[in-house]
Inverse folding.
């Protein structure tokens, strides 16, 4: 394995050469696209928290905290996958960026887009133009509106013809026949609906695309097709945030994977960290997710993601963790950089931990006990 | 016991068959996988086998005997979206015990906690709701379970937890399980045998 310095040197090199010239299928002329990571993130979400005010009984209110200390960054030309189970706050993050949270929500922390603070007014200006959402299902379309009309959206009369042409071109690119223009949502098959939803984002020439669970329930062919659309968008310079619970689908196309758990981010890994059986993964939860895939052993860990109203003092993953130590029960571990990613764990990376445990048994004795439990359960 | 669907044909519109002369059978204790593209009729077949859809041609029987129209249906279906399969205005304990009183053993094996029972469906996550849906479907009278994409909407860890529990209970109670999924890797992990809908359907 390369040491850290070598890996970084290699990255810098490819940054310099990362300019690709490609023919844009829509305009027909050649455009220069920077495929490699831009230096400045297009979207920066810094330490946000989100809570809902709820009435319990009578006029008594409580605050339900659903997101805390959450930070991610999305770069142009890259796909960031946000992976987590339901209730981990991944859709709420999308709603926070788009400014479509319900009135009883309280959002704290900082969101920056293109170097500027993203206020509610900015969100409303940008959404549907620079920031676009690819929703989960055909349920998000108006059932009584013809497909082409809703893809084009609300435009001035003089632009209508132009937009109609653009819409036709985009549909053609996605292999949607002219008769689809006049169809209603219920007439679309699953795959067609997916292409229509993707078109709504493409037509807005957005720079930031947020796709909320676009893949579940698709057969393999349609799944790969859908994923390739997002790959195309990133290749054309968009920043794509792919929200999904399907780590496998995410790995097929993403550059980075942010792992969400109970309203916070536990790890941001590079896609390559999952190679070689995930040996470079940093957080025990990511490792557990990886090992739970049917092809990776189908191993489970006990317990559940904590409920939103459960107050937890230490690390949010404490109860289910196999490498916890005493300090994990006190205070939330800080997010720290590790091997080109970030992790929220007191006990460094999984692999580093294993190594240390091997080398110095007396010091890590209490961890070794946990470890042997883990190994036993793996054998079962 | 053997659940058999013989020469099943079904269409939602006239002269537009979703299923044509399809045959399927599986026995108690067997875990059978069913794979097919979207729109190929998997879910329709599931609904017919479990008695939700009656307007079909062909014959469904268990050990050669027709399934009685009244009383507990021995073939239970669990859907992809549990939030659509529960009454949003009922508390979880009422939803759980609507059909029969679910035993504490089953609750424990699914890891359903006592304090979840007093919650409303919208206060639980999809994975937690799906555990309830399965717990109430796996009564002692259930002979066959049809799992139509039951873990498509949950994360990998929850998926593994749910399936390990379901297969344990199925083995214990000698229940036959039909696993419907797009995920070939999941089917390979779970099932003794796999059917491709295209092979048994003559549309």
């Amino acid at each position: 394995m390369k040491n850290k310095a070598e890996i970084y040197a290699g990255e810098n090199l490819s940054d310099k050469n990362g300019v690709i010239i490609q023919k844009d299928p829509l305009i027909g002329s050649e455009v220069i696209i920077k495929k490699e990571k831009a230096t400045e993130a297009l979207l920066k979400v810094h330490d946000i928290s989100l809570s809902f005010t709820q009435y319990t009984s009578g006029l008594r209110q409580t605050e339900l905290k659903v997101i805390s200390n959450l930070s991610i960054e999305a770069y142009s030309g890259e796909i960031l996958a946000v992976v987590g189970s339901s209730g981990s706050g991944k859709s709420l993050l999308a709603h926070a960026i788009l400014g479509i949270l319900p009135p009883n929500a309280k959002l704290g922390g900082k969101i920056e887009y293109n170097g500027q603070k993203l206020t509610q007014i900015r969100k409303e200006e940008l959404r549907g133009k620079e920031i676009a959402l690819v929703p989960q299902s055909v349920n998000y379309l108006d059932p009584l509106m013809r497909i082409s009309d809703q893809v084009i959206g609300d435009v001035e009369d003089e632009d209508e013809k132009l937009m109609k042409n653009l819409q036709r071109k985009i549909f053609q690119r996605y292999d949607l026949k002219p008769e689809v223009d006049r169809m209603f949502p219920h007439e679309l098959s699953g795959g067609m609906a997916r292409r229509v939803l993707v078109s709504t984002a493409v037509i807005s020439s957005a720079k930031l695309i947020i796709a909320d669970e676009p893949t579940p329930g698709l057969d393999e062919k349609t799944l790969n097709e859908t994923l390739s659309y997002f790959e195309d968008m990133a290749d054309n310079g968009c920043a794509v945030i792919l929200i999904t619970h399907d780590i496998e689908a995410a790995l097929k196309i993403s550059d980075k994977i942010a792992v969400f758990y109970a309203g916070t981010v536990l790890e941001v890994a590079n896609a390559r960290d999952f190679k070689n059986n995930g040996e470079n993964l940093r957080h025990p939860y990511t490792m557990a997710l990886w090992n739970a895939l049917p092809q990776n052993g189908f191993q489970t860990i006990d317990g559940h993601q904590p409920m939103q109203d459960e107050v937890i003092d230490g690390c949010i993953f404490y109860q289910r963790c196999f490498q916890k130590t005493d300090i994990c029960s006190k205070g939330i571990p800080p997010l720290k950089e590790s091997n080109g990613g970030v992790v929220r764990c007191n006990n460094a990376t999984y692999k580093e931990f294993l190594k240390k445990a091997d080398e110095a048994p007396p010091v890590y004795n209490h961890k070794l006990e946990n470890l042997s439990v883990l190994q036993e359960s793996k054998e079962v | 016991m053997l659940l058999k669907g013989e020469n099943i044909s079904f269409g939602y519109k006239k002269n537009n068959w979703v299923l044509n002369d399809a045959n399927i059978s599986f026995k108690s204790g067997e875990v059978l996988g069913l794979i097919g593209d979207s729109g190929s009729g998997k879910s329709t077949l599931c609904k017919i086998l479990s008695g939700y859809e009656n307007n079909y041609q062909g014959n469904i029987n268990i050990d050669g005997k027709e399934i009685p129209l009244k009383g507990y249906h021995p073939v239970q279906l669990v859907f992809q979206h549990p939030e659509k399969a529960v009454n949003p205005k009922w508390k979880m304990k009422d939803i759980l015990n609507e059909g029969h009183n679910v035993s504490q053993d089953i609750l424990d094996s699914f890891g359903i906690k006592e304090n979840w029972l007093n919650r409303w469906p919208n206060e639980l996550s999809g994975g937690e709701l799906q555990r309830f849906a399965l717990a109430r479907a796996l009564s002692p009278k259930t002979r066959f379970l049809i799992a139509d994409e039951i873990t498509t909407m949950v994360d990998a860890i929850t998926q593994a937890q749910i399936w390990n529990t379901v297969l344990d209970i199925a083995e214990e109670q000698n229940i036959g399980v039909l696993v419907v999924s797009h995920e070939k890797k999941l089917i390979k992990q779970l099932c003794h045998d796999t059917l491709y809908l295209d092979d048994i359907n003559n549309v």
User: Anything to note?
Assistant: Residues 10 and 55 of chain B are 8 Å apart (CA to CA). Chain B has a mean pLDDT of 93.
